[in-house]
Design brief:
The protein has 11 helices and 9 strands. It is an alpha+beta fold. It folds into 3 domains: 76 residues, TATA-Binding Protein; 156 residues, Nucleotidyltransferase, domain 5 (2-Layer Sandwich); 49 residues, no CATH class. A hairpin with a 2-residue loop joins strand 2 and strand 3.
Length: 314
C-alpha cells in the first residue's frame, strides 16, 4: 500500500514556528492531511494541516496553542477584514484616540504570580514609537526578548503611564478566595488599574478574560469613557504593550521563585507535576503554596504522587 506524503506546514507558518522556537516532535497521517506534535518551553500542541491548505490547532489551552490559533484566524477572509493588523508578526494598528489598554499574564500558569498591567497612550506619536519598537501580542515574542521590549515600552510611554499589579501565589489565593473566583479577581484588578490610569483617555480596551468581563468592569468606567472588551485585543497598541509588560513581570517573578526552590519552574499548566513534586520534596506543602496556584487541580496530582514517593499506597 502506498503511503501518502505528509501535508507540509504552510511556509509562512513554518517561518513563524522557527522564529518562535517551536519544535516539531512528531507527526502522523490523519484523514486528508497530517497532524504534527509541537512543543515550546514545556508547552505542547497539535497542529492539523489538511490537503486543502486549511489548518487547525488542538491540545490544552496554552500560549503555544494561542500562537497557532492567532495565525489561523489571521488567514481567514473574515480575519483579514476585521483584524488585518492583528496577524501574527505584524504590528498593531495605529489609533490616535487617547486610550488605556489592559491585559494579564499568568492566569493559566500553575507556577508564579497573576500579573495585570495597564498602559496608557495619549498621543499618536507614542503609538507610532511603539510600532517601531515592534510591540505586538506577547505570545508572539520569545521569552528571551520580552524584557528588552518591555523596557523600551516604559521608555516610550513613561512610567507614569504604566501600572502593574503582581500577586504572588499566596496573595493570589487569598484574594481569589475573597473575590469568589479568578475572573472576579481579574475584574477587581482591572478596575484598580483603571482608577490609576483612566484620566486623559477616551477609551479603555481590555482583553476579554471571561464572557462576564464587561459586567465586572462597567461600574468602574467613568462617564464619557468608552469601554471595549474583546478577544484578541492585542491588535490594539495599548493592549499589546500591556501584554508585554505583564509577561515581563511574570517572567521576572518566575525567575525569583525558581531561585527560591533551586531549579527552573516551568510555565504553563502541563508538564508541571514533576516540578511540583520536587518542590514538595524539598520545601513541603508550605513551600508549594509559596510558588504555585494551589487551587489548580494539578495540586491534587502533585500531592498524590509526592505521597507515593514517601511510601504511600501505589
Amino acid at each position: 500500500m502506498n503511503r501518502a506524503s505528509p501535508t507540509r506546514v504552510p511556509a509562512e507558518l513554518r517561518r513563524l514556528l522557527d522564529r518562535e522556537g517551536v519544535k516539531v516532535t512528531g507527526s502522523r497521517a490523519i484523514d486528508h492531511g497530517t497532524q504534527y506534535d509541537l512543543a515550546r518551553d514545556g508547552e505542547t500542541a497539535k497542529l492539523n494541516v489538511y490537503s486543502t491548505g486549511k489548518v487547525s490547532a488542538g491540545g490544552r489551552a496554552s500560549r503555544l496553542r494561542d500562537l497557532l490559533e492567532g495565525w489561523r484566524t489571521s488567514q481567514t477572509s473574515v480575519g483579514r477584514a476585521r483584524a488585518s493588523a492583528a496577524r501574527v508578526g505584524e504590528s498593531p494598528a495605529l489609533d490616535g484616540t487617547p486610550r488605556l489598554g489592559i491585559d494579564e499574564a499568568g492566569k493559566g500558569d500553575y507556577f508564579g504570580p497573576l500579573v495585570v498591567a495597564g498602559v496608557r497612550i495619549t498621543r499618536l506619536q507614542t503609538a507610532k514609537k511603539l510600532q517601531q519598537i515592534g510591540v505586538r501580542d506577547s505570545k508572539e515574542i520569545r521569552a528571551s526578548g520580552i524584557q528588552r521590549i518591555s523596557e523600551r515600552i516604559l521608555e516610550a510611554v513613561g512610567q507614569n503611564n504604566v501600572c502593574v499589579i503582581s500577586l504572588p501565589p499566596q496573595e493570589y489565593e487569598s484574594r481569589r478566595s475573597a473575590a469568589g473566583n479568578v475572573n472576579r479577581l481579574l475584574g477587581e484588578l482591572n478596575a484598580t488599574i483603571m482608577g490609576e490610569l483612566v484620566n486623559e483617555v477616551e477609551v479603555v480596551v481590555v482583553d476579554e478574560f471571561a464572557r462576564s468581563a464587561r459586567s465586572y468592569l462597567e461600574p468602574s468606567v467613568p462617564e464619557g469613557v468608552r469601554l471595549e472588551v474583546r478577544t484578541r485585543a492585542e491588535n490594539d497598541a495599548a493592549v499589546a504593550s500591556a501584554s508585554i509588560v505583564a509577561r515581563a513581570r511574570q517572567l521576572d517573578e518566575i525567575d525569583r521563585l525558581s531561585a527560591r526552590v533551586g531549579f527552573g519552574l516551568p510555565l504553563g499548566a502541563t508538564h508541571v507535576v514533576e516540578a511540583g513534586r520536587m518542590v514538595v520534596r524539598e520545601l513541603g506543602e508550605e513551600g508549594l503554596a509559596e510558588v504555585a496556584k494551589i487551587h489548580f487541580a494539578t495540586t491534587r496530582r502533585v500531592l498524590e504522587t509526592a505521597g507515593q514517593d514517601e511510601g504511600g499506597d501505589p
